[in-house]
Amino acid sequence: MLPRVVSRCSESNGVGSTEHFWYRVGPKEIYIDSQRDNKVFGYGNGKIFLSKDNGRTWPHSLAFPDAEHIGFSYILNNGNILFATETKLYVSTDNLKTYRPITVKAQDGSDYIPHTPQNPELPGWYFSPLHGVAAWEVKGKEMLVWGNYGNVMGGAAPINIYSSADGGQSVKIAYAFGQNPQWRDGGKNGTLLGAPSNPVICRHVHCVAYNPAENAFYACTGDADRDGKHECHWLRGTYDAKKDQWNWNVLVSTQSNTRYKCGGINCVDGKVYWISDANGPLPHDRGIFCCDPADIPYPEKHTRLFNPQYECANMIIQDGVILAAHYATASPYNTGIIYSPDMGKTWAQYDLKELGKRSPTRFHRKNAEGWFRADLRSGWIKREEVLFIKPKGRRR
Question: Checking DSSP bridges between strand 359-364 and strand 348-351, what pairing results, if any?
């Protein structure tokens, strides 16, 4: 099936329609930051909110002066809610009656304290991810694992992969990237940030995903080459629960015009899927790819399922549906959606023009009513609205 560029204007009830899905924009008053089943966490007007009926009512709320600075949240299966501003991490264990700060633990067990920025207005993004799915059941226990998408705005930040194995009660650094001279606090001659002993550097984490078939995690980073060093890597990590220890190996380190500069890693039926935002001189190595985990380092063993032509790095797969998006800054689409209802057998592309020039990011799994959730960002960084997409039918 060839890609199509189609948009349907929103209906009077605020719900738009394409051949494959319905779509709608979230409320203006409360920014819906994360969802799980019937629960929704949001913020606005100096408060944080919790709904248990997918946003129809908001019986739980609490004053939180830094609400507009929230860049990450997650609802755990035990009901705990983890959320973060630029440099501070919090957890609520009682449906937002209260919340408390979390001090992240470094790999050696010490407290991990964010740096003091030279400019207090630019503290860096320590906890905000680009990927929306960050928790999986691992050997009967839910684990939360994510990486920060820093060094894009708001100041420089060290780049880490974080994990919680106790339902959000505590958070530890699973992997700390090295000091990148390009991304210093205070500019070109400013303070180096990151793990001084690690030669592996990056600009930021694009995605972390879990493959239950091999009990392993995968992470990819961006973006370019800096002083002869690659920022683009794929890592494979395993977690020893008894020892509470991580082991990571770098599978690939390469330049930006390859399929390894990517995001949207998903693991389905033992295979690894991802979407590339390769850039640089022509030709571009772009597309949605699939392979066995052991074949990740070998491009000749990959299958390209579809090529949207433009830079894309956000994707989710659930119930046979592959949902991905264009970056508005790198594509002629206003709000571009890439869609397959059948695990990549057929494809369609839609431009939801009436939503404006927006980049969908941070795809969350469907809620109990079948709606995916994503940020809508101007450029690819600044949050504007929330987009919900509901598949019309499953064909696999």
Answer: unpaired
Domains in the chain, CATH or no CATH each: 5-391 (2.120.10.30)
How far apart CA 17 and CA 390 sit, in angstroms, is 9
Question: What region, left, alpha or beta, does residue 37 occupy, with left being phi > 0 and alpha being psi -120 to 50 degrees?
Answer: left
User: What is d(CA 385, CA 88) in angstroms, rounded to the nearest whole number?
Assistant: 23
47-77 as b/e, with b when 16 or more CB fall inside 10 Å? bbbbbeebbeebebbeebeebebbbbbbbbe
Give the tokens for residue 271.
């295979």
Please name the residue that has the structure tokens 């894309």. Answer: 312
| Separation CA 155–CA 86 (nearest Å) | 10
Rounded to whole angstroms, the Cα distance separating 9 from 233 reads: 40
0.85 exceeded by pTM: yes
CA 378 from centre of chain: 16
Q: How does pLDDT run across 247-270, given as a tens digit for each residue? A: 999 999 999 999 999 999 999 999
- Cβ neighbors of 184 (< 8 A, separation 6 or more) are 156, 190, 191, 192, 193
